Amino acid sequence: MKVYENAKSALESVKSNQTIMVGGFGLVGAPLTLIDELTRKEIDGLTVISNNLGEKGKGLGILVNQKKIKKGIGSYFTSNRDVGDAYQKGEIELQLLPQGTLAESMRAGGAGLGGYYTKTGVGTDLAKGKEEKVIDGITYIFEPALRANVALIRAWKADTLGNLVFYKTARNFNPMMATAADIVIAEVDEIVEAGELSPEEIVTPHLFVDGMIKAQKILTKDGVIDHEQK
C-alpha cells in the first residue's frame, strides 16, 4: 500500500479531461486535503461525479470557479449558487441524477454491470432520451453504470494495508466510489498497524485502495480548518 507524503504526489494520477469521483455530501465526508491540492494543479476539462460540487468558494466549488470542471454529474447542485451561474453562462455541463440513482449507478459500475432499470424519473424530464422498458406492466428507464478514472475518497481510519473505516454519515458515497474507479486514493484521519482494525468494522477492503494520504484539513462547525488547529 502506497502512503503518500503529500497531496501533490497523491494526485499524480489525476490528469486533464479525466472522469473523477469525489466523495462527500456537502463538505461532510469530502477529501478536503486532496480537493485543496486539486485547486493548485494545472488541469482542466474534468468530469466530476459527486453528490454536489462543493459550496460557494469551498471544496469543489473552488474548482468550479477556476473553470477546471467541464461537467458535473450529481444530485444536489443547488447548494452552490456558483454552479447554477456557471451553467447559465454555458461554462459547465450538468447531468442531474436522483440521489438513489446516483448511488446505484456507482454501485453498478463497481459490480461490473453495464446499467440497470429503475422506475425513478419515469415520466419526467430526467427520462428524456433514455430507453424505456415495460416489465410486469410497470415502465422503467435504463440508467447506465458510472465509473471513473480516479476516485478521491475520505475515510476516518485505515490500517497500513489500506482497509478503511468511515465515520458515521461521512461514509455517504465514499465506499461505493472505491469500487467504481480504476485508481482509488483515500484521505484518512488516522493510519494504524495492520491487524488493529476489527474485520467487523472494515467497510472498504484494501484490495480496492491504491494509495492513501493523511488528512491535513478537517471540517468543523466553524468551517474547514487545518488538522493541527483541531
Automatic annotation (TrEMBL):
Q: Which InterPro entries match?
A: 3-oxoacid_CoA-transf_A, CoA_trans_fam_I, NagB/RpiA_transferase-like
Keywords, ordered alphabetically: Transferase
Which SUPFAM superfamilies does the record match to this protein? NagB/RpiA/CoA transferase-like
Where does the source fall among the domains of life? Bacteria
Named from the GO MF annotations, one term is: succinyl-CoA:3-oxo-acid CoA-transferase activity
Assigned EC number: 2.8.3.5
Question: Does the keyword field hold Transcription regulation?
Answer: no
Pfam families tied to this protein:
CoA_trans (PF01144)
Matching PANTHER family: KETOACID-COENZYME A TRANSFERASE, SUCCINYL-COA:3-KETOACID COENZYME A TRANSFERASE SUBUNIT B-RELATED
Know the name of this protein? 3-oxoacid CoA-transferase subunit A
Say which species the protein is native to: Cytobacillus purgationiresistens
